[in-house]
Amino acid sequence: MASWAHSVMVVLAIILLPIMVETKVWHYKFNVVMKNFTRLCETKPIVTINGKFPGPTLYTREDDRVIVKLVNNVPHNITIHWHGIRQLRTGWSDGPAYVTQCPIQSGQSYLYKFNVTGQRGTLLWHAHITWLRATVHGAIVILPKHGVPYPFPKPDHEKVVILGEWWKSDADDVMNQWIQTGMPPNVSDAHTINGYPGPVPNCSTSTGYTLHVESGKTYLLRIINAALNEDLFLKIAKHQFTVVEVDACYVKPFKTDTIYIAPGQTTTALLTADQNSGKYLMAISPFMDTIVAVDNQTAISTLRYKSTKMYSPTILTALPAVNATSATNVFIESLKSLNSAKYPALVPLKIDHFLTFVVGVGVNPCSTCINGSRVVAGINNVTFVMPTTPLLQAHYFNISGVYTDDFPGNPVAPYNYTGSGPLTNMQITNGTKVYRLAYNSTVQVVIQGNSVIAPESHPIHLHGFNFFVVGKGMGNFDPLNDPKKFNLVDPVERNTLNVPTAGWTAIRFRADNPGVWFLHCHLEVHTTWGLKMAFLVDNGKGPNESIIPPPKDLPTC
Ligand code: C2O
Hints:
The protein is mostly beta strands. The chain has five helices and 33 strands. The longest helix is centred in the first third of the chain and has 18 residues, at 3-20.
């Protein structure tokens, strides 16, 4: 090419580039305020964002930028986590208190700033400190890029459906019960659908949510489990769901009449209003297939066709039994990555770190507790102790004494994790330990449930990454034979997995995001008890592979 032509091209590129790559910035203001809701049968105010429960939906678009100004007008400290947003190099905006930031104190504000890179679908945001997320949560809707269609038939309408759990007493008081007594805290008093508990005994003001539909139309339901401690089933009488995406990753569409969803997970599904006009029960109920107590109440809502007669009866359906393990398996095993040319499943095939995390609850001595012991939880017999200086700050500014990087990547003394023999390995040590990874290294983690006190399913969430769920099974993971059965072609990609009761799940991811990233059980009660750890991913080469410098308004502790 002649040199003048080359110069013209360069000049044109400089002029056009900002036009071509211009990203929209979505601005939001999140005001933290107290508010009363009579539909929750209580007169006490709850902590909300902008006086809404659930909070406002944060709409954005793939490859755009989001800036949320959070202003804290309540007495509580707060932080917000954008659950599932990758936060590439922007750990300062990830949100978990004392992991990536100090809490935003009463009267203070903070700007959360992040790009939404290569993600589209439904996620959630929630408070990430104490048990505040019981009332401080909402949906994130990431629309596909302009001109890029959904890889499924275009719905006529979209609806957000947020499932939650409600306590009559302040959720933080429920948490403090454990701190004082060492005993498991109370289960919730009701489940909610979009903030409505449905009819509650002894409460004339409680109402149920109504999903209004029009005959023949198709709805994209963005379903979010924002509950603290319970896996849930969702059913709508006589209607089928076609699941098309989970955790903002497209899946091969499949039909089901029951959605199974754990705290922190999202499921986007199509529903066609293809029945006779009328009212249909829409309900959620808990899943728990072991001896652990749950709030066994069903939250009742209604799917209602336009022009339904006022007094028509509601058509009912039965929900799965509380211990319907098979229903959860059917759902989980139906999830496969779309793995199309446009949305390939880039499963790491060569692995640098083979890790095994044994997760579960145990007991530690506690002289001030009711039984002389405290229920705790951990990973590889380590209960994570929250530091008072955020890990990310300690890492970035080289502050020593905040954490150590000797988190055991495998159990120190292996045992029969899922046996039913005498109680062993109950004692757990305390520590603030991270597992260190080089930039771009590849990781496999087998998350193995233990049965030390009670086997239990765990929804494990990893910040900063999506991972592929390459395998799962019952009992102890067999490192020789189980990997032969791994799905390395189209495993589901997500950010919150399910470890089955007395079983294991294996995931793979690439550590292509420098920073400090929390991994924890998304049952808030288990996080409180210490079932958490963090990965520290070192910077790679140059600024594009390094953590951005901290913002000026980063809160101090
Ligand atoms: Cu949605 Cu660390 O959590």
